Structure formats: structure tokens, C-alpha cells
Amino acid sequence: METLKMLLRRRTLLASAALSVSLLVTACGSGDDADSGGPPPAASDADIQAALDAGGTITVWAWEPTLKQVVTDFQAKYPKVKVDLVNAGTGNDQYTALQNAVKAGSGVPDIAQVEYYALPQFVLSKALSSLNGYGADKLQGTFTPGPWNAVQSSGAVYGLPMDSGPMALFYNKEVFDKHGLKVPTTWDEYVAEAGKLHKADPKAYITSDTGDAGFTTSMIWQAGGKPYTVDGTKVGVNLADPGTQKFTATWQKLIDGKLLSPVNGWSDAWYKGLGDGTIATLVIGAWMPANLESGVAAAAGKWRVAPMPQWEAGGKATAENGGSSLAIPEKGANKTLAYAFLKYATVDQGAQTRADGGAFPATTAQLNSPQFLNKEFPYFGGQKVNQVLAEAAGQVTPGWSYLPFQVYANSIFGDTVGKAYLGDLTLQDGLKAWQDASVKYGHDQGFTVQ
Fold this sequence. Notes:
alpha/beta, D-Maltodextrin-Binding Protein, domain 2, 2 domains, globular
């Protein structure tokens, strides 16, 4: 469980800038279609089965812990296939290793785990193979809308979703009951309850937030913002669109009122605050239950899950926060066999195995199964938490895009927007600084940025 805890921690930490500029420069200097990883291979179901029958060895770079059981089961079912599961680093550490292998032309894995926010960067650099030739483009109904949208570019599918992170409100019921707080259904109510809580107990806060790129973009996403537009190497960045301003106007009230805990997320103090009630809520992805169970055992029975507060009363909009795909690098050596494992792990039996292991599924079959929906969580007072989270998965606001250099953009969030949490500037001004720095970086790498 500790491995899962560390995995989930990485999902909301700011990524570093280690993905070097060369990966992007190469893509931007190409005269080919920037969204194409070359002609997709053609392989029928019979070809895929033949590859499984023939056997061979494939290397999978991934840090997600539930894949260990998937590999064991897959090898038992297909004894002629050897799957070498390698943890080449979590998140950005693996991306750096993958980039270096691609650049060197050797040591490239057959399959790589790539988070949704990082996928566009690898697609643009032609580092990943289109999966359309294997029939992946026909799997739309297999996955929930948010993850499915995240793995596509210009009509091609570049990865199969492993999991998803539709957002919800996790709250400490004991704290809410003690202070007579209402579970907020709108963000205006959330701000109001934040004030009531901190007035009743100056040591308690509605949540902690010292500046997190993933959380901020997810909030803008839910508000209907579309600050990023991407058309190959033509990129638009507008962090002053109506959705963004809706978020900043509300969140600035929490900052100005000193209603946000100054404790850094994922620190020991953060876990302590979640356990002792001084941090009363989390607005976060659906992968959070396992993390609370393992990291905040002292609060067992106290937490509950409710739908994400809405920007307008009666609304039903969520956003994604975290999640990963499995993709096939363009320079992988055994693509057909790799796709066979990819499909097993994300669509077939492996999807159920991973859900049983604690991953929040991106597959509609698992999300809609009575077993999944009716599971009672003792940690959450017996609540059927998955019913709330599965509903959120179907309410993700469509049309969101990440930058093709989002990894870099996230790495400078603290140096720009982070200053707003210290009172040095407003949140909107911080986002303007983030925009300016992102635009400059894009120009420097050869993008056409507006």
C-alpha cells in the first residue's frame, strides 16, 4: 500500500522540467504532420492472437502497482510471453529516461505508462505509435469520456486509458457535524463554509492549497475554461478566459480571507491535518480513497464523499485530476505483442484486476458493475463511495486540451502563480505571469504561440 500511496502522491505534484528541449525542437522542425507518429501499423485480431501464440518478450515501463498482478495473470494465460515490468522512475523521471532512450535509438521499451497531461508532448515529438491500426479507435464506448478524449490527437489514438481521476469533494463529516457546517453544493457555499469553519476554530481550514498546477487547471476545466488550444505546433494560451476568471474570482476570496491552510500538500503536516481535522476537505481525483485509507488511518470512519461543488446551482460538471495511459513507443520492437498486452491490461481481464486492486477504472464496464457500485467502504462509514465517483466520471466537461509542453509549464507554476498564495500578487496576475512564461518558452522551442 505504501507504493500506491507514493504513486498517488506523484499525481498532483508539480512536474519538473527535465524533459529536455530537444524533444520538442525535433518535432517542431519537422515538415511532417506534427500529430502523426507515422503510418499506423495494421494488425487484425487474428494477427494479435498469432503474436500471443508465437510468444516473445516485451518490456513495460510503468510505476503503477496494480500492473504487477496483471503481468502475473497475463503470463499465466499466455505462457509463451514474457513481460519484463520495469519501474524506470515515477512520472517525469520515467519521461526523461524514455526521451533519452528515444533520442539514443536504443533501450526503448515496448510499452510505457504516460500520464494524460504528458501525452501530447510525446505525440507531438512522434515518440508514440498510433494505435488505430489495431482497432483502438473503435474502443470509444469502452472508456469514460475524459480519459478517452485525453488519449486522442487528430483522430488517432495514442494510448489506452489505465485509470481516471474524475473529481469529487472529500470531507470530514465529524468536523462538519461539530461546527454545524453544510456540505457545499456550489463554490459560493464552499467559500461561506470556509469562513464559518475558520471562525469557529482558527486552527481549522476548509482545505490546504499553496499552489498546484494540476489542481488549478482542473478547476479551470470544471468552470468551462479552455485556456489552451492546440493545432499541431500552433498553440493558443489564454489564462484570462471566462472559465479561468470564474475560478480566480472565487479562489481569491479564500486567499484574501486566509482561509486556506498554508500546509504543503502531501507533506507529513498535510497528512496530520487530514487526520486531526484541521484540514476539513479535499477537492481531488477519484483515486484518493486508497490514499486516505493508507495515509490517514487515524481518521477512519470520519470521511465521506460528495459531488464536486458547482459554479452554478444545479450544475453537474466535473473535471479530471490525474490518470495515466499505456502507450506504445514508435521505436518499440514488438508492437503487435505489445498491443496484445496493452488491451489485456486496460480493456480485458486486466481492467478488472486493477479495479480490484484499488485503481479507479476508466472503463465503463467496471464503473457500471453492481459489484463496483455497491462496494461499501468502512473507512468512509460504510458509504458506497463509488456511486458518487462513477457518476462524476460521466460528467467531465468536454473539450479540454493540455499544452504540448505542459510538463514544462507545470514546472514553473510555483515561480509564477505560486506567488499569489504568498500575497505578492493576485491569482489572476499570477496566471498572467504563468501565461507569459509559457508563451515565451513555446516561442523559444519553435511553436507558433498566440
